[in-house]
């Protein structure tokens, strides 16, 4: 079976973690242990989030006195793909011995006229108190928005239209490699309509929607979205909270999940199932093997047609 695994950013840096290299290494070791069983039995592609990392790099770049202008988000995204990819490769070499492993900096095509460029919504970087966030926004030209526990920078998040390296990823899978790619949704680029030349853009693509598109393009059998909760929940965080154990794309969309957390994950799962007829699931990182074998998580399956 071919499985695309989408790791949430909290799998690499959990809320409240300091972004130290040692902390990230510890969390990456946990990831490698969680996915090792699947990697030993199936063709596996791993994608990952990068919100804490790219936010930190953006903050450092904006404050660097040696730069005449901050480094653009597309290049910062490429840096996070290399950083996280390297950590994952090292950890997986220990947990999946003898397996070929490749980390690939991946580019995601977006439309230059995507309306998302005029409406920044993607949260990146640390959480700040309101006054600090407002000061940073004035000083650095940021857009900011309220998060669950404070305020964060928000950037444009255009919809993914295609993965530039899909054929390369397919070739790596064919030769038996475990592939790490499309980190942070991939480096966002536009393609010239005449020459095909690629140009980076100031944005961060949603990693779950990119994972769904990548899984579709690779003809994957299963899209596994891993996060820090065991299931999708209706009325999450309220006394009426209930787990959703089995769902279809239609029932997920009727759940009206929030954009800043579960919304992109449920939409990604719904899109993949609708477009391919495959299966998707959402659940906790440490239960990755159990989720694929139907013993944990929220399973998303095609609608059953009658007659």
Task: List its traits.
23% strand; alpha/beta; 307 residues; globular; 8-stranded mixed sheet; 9 helices; 4-stranded mixed sheet
What does this structure look like?
The chain is α/β, with parallel strands linked by helices and 307 residues long. Helix content is 37%, strand content 23%. The protein contains nine helices and 17 strands. The protein has an eight-stranded mixed β-sheet, with helices on both faces. Strand 10 and strand 11 (198-200) form a beta hairpin. The longest helix has 23 residues, at 73-95. The radius of gyration is 19 Å and the shape is globular. The mean pLDDT is 90.
Strand content is 15-25%
**Distance between the ends:** 29 Å
Overall mean pLDDT stands at 90
Q: Tell me, what's the shape? A: globular
Structural class by helix and strand composition = alpha/beta
The helix-strand sequence is EHEHHEEEHEEEHEEEHEEEEHHEHE
State the total count of DSSP E strands. 17
Give a topology summary:
Layout: E1 2-7, H1 21-41, E2 43-48, H2 51-63, H3 73-95, E3 101-103, E4 107-109, E5 122-128, H4 130-140, E6 143-146, E7 151-155, E8 162-163, H5 166-174, E9 178-180, E10 187-191, E11 198-200, H6 207-217, E12 222-227, E13 232-234, E14 242-244, E15 246-247, H7 249-254, H8 263-276, E16 279-284, H9 288-292, E17 298-300
Parallel strand pairs: 1-2, 1-12, 2-9, 3-9, 4-10, 12-16, 15-17
Antiparallel strand pairs: 4-8, 5-7, 6-7, 10-11, 13-14, 16-17
Helix pairs in contact: 1-3, 2-3, 6-8
């Amino acid at each position: 079976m071919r499985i695309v695994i989408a790791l949430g950013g909290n799998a690499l840096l959990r809320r409240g973690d300091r972004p130290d290299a040692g902390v990230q290494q510890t969390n990456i070791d946990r990831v490698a242990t969680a996915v090792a069983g699947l990697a030993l039995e199936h063709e596996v592609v791993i994608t990952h989030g990068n919100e804490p990392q790219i936010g930190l790099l953006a903050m450092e770049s904006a404050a660097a006195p040696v730069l005449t202008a901050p480094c653009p988000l597309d290049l910062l995204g490429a840096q996070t793909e290399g950083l996280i990819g390297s950590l994952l490769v090292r950890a997986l070499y220990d947990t999946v011995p003898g397996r070929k492993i490749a980390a690939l900096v991946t580019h995601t095509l977006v439309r230059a006229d995507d309306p998302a460029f005029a409406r920044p919504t993607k949260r990146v970087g640390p959480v700040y108190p309101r006054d600090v966030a407002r000061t940073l926004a004035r000083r650095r030209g940021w857009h900011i928005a309220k998060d669950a526990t404070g305020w964060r920078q928000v950037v444009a998040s255009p919809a993914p239209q295609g993965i530039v390296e899909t054929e390369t990823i397919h070739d790596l899978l064919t030769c038996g490699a475990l592939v790490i790619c499309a980190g942070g949704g991939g480096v966002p680029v536009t393609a010239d309509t005449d020459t095909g030349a690629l140009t980076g853009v100031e944005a961060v693509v949603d990693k779950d929607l990119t994972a769904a598109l990548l899984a579709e393009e690779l003809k994957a059998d299963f899209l596994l979205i891993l996060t820090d909760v065991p299931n999708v929940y209706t009325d999450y965080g309220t006394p009426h909270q209930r787990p959703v154990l089995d769902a279809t794309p239609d029932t997920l969309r009727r759940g009206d999940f929030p954009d800043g957390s579960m919304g992109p994950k449920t939409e990604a799962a719904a899109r993949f199932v609708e477009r391919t007829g495959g299966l998707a699931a959402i659940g906790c990182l440490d239960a990755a093997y159990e989720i694929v074998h139907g013993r944990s998580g929220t399973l998303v399956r095609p609608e059953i047609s009658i007659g």
